[in-house]
Amino acid sequence: MACLNPDGSLSSSARELLKLASEPLSPEEISAELATPLFKVRASLREMLAAGLVEERQAGYQATEEGLARVGGVVA
Amino acid sequence: MDMDSLVEATIAPRLPRIGEPAPQFEAPTTHGTLRLEDFQGSWVVLFSHPADFTPVCTTEFIGFAKAQPKLKELNTELLGLSIDSVYSHISWVRNVEEKMGIKIEFPVIADLNKEVASLYGMIMPGESKTETSRCVFIIDGDQMLRAMIYYPLTTGRNIDEIIRLIKALQTSDEYGVATPANWQPGDRVIIPPPQTQEAAEERVETEGVECKDWYFCTKELPEAK
Description:
- The complex is a heterodimer.
- By secondary structure, chain A is mostly helical.
- Chain A has one domain (about 10-70): Arc Repressor Mutant, subunit A, CATH 1.10.10.
- Chain A has four helices and two strands; from the N terminus they run αααββα.
- Chain A has helices spanning about 10-20, 25-35, 40-50, 65-70; strands spanning about 55, 60-65.
- A two-stranded antiparallel sheet of chain A has the order 1-2.
- In chain A, strand 1 and strand 2 (about 60-65) form a beta hairpin.
- In chain A, helix 2 (about 25-35) packs across helix 3.
- Chain B contains six helices and ten strands; from the N terminus they run H-E-E-E-H-E-H-E-H-E-E-H-E-H-E-E.
- Chain B has helices at about 5-10, 55-75, 85-100, 115-120, 160-175, 195-205; strands spanning about 25-30, 30-35, 45-50, 75-80, 110, 135-140, 145-150, 190, 210-215, 215-220.
- Chain B is elongated.
- Chain B folds into two domains: about 5-160, Glutaredoxin; about 175-225, 2-Layer Sandwich (Antioxidant, Horf6, Chain A, domain 2), CATH 3.30.1020.
- Classes of the chains: A mainly alpha, B alpha+beta.
- The interface between A and B is small, with 12 and 11 residues.
């Protein structure tokens, strides 16, 4: 579940995750919602954190403004 | 022992052992960069194969892929490994799907620098210095190494035995029992030998416990009844 393609574009799974994470969610919740193994979600979140696409909050992981903008989402 | 062997033996890393934490790693895989810690909470079957595009390995990959639903029921994830590039892995798993009709959905580590293989002692130089043998490491949800199986290059593994092994380990954890030779789910399990004379005397009187002698007692598990 690599999130960033070599050309810098987002993988389709990364786009799904970012759209879902417009609200803070735990890795377990993301795993259940996307029907994706937890290990893949954890690896993706780590990669997205490093890329500044998600941030870790008390309630879970949430897409950053940049992350939402990359998937055409509305910044809350 | 010649000098080269002596030096190799002296500097060789300590290999993992049952009952110890599984060595942590971060590695490129067909599913992106993964760390062992990403699997925390799940059991893991970390297994190596000698090389992509080889027949015995292909049969094993098909066997593991078919076993994946059963393993999921056991909260267990598969993680393959060989000393091949990620491009080779991608090409091979696509070939398996195209030619054999089996989709490989588990990640495969591309261990070109042999880091993980060395960490886990997967290379048997007596057989090959450039390929990993058919090793299996069963790692539990707390990332402890629970069992290891090593097969040579020539011999494909028995996937059913790996499933049986995980079921046996999980049964031991849940009920505090041991499992006898050739145990299958539903069979009677072994109660650990008592540690005191009093416990031994009580043991043989316990209802539902069948004792050949004080040290050899079995019982049924609740769901087997």
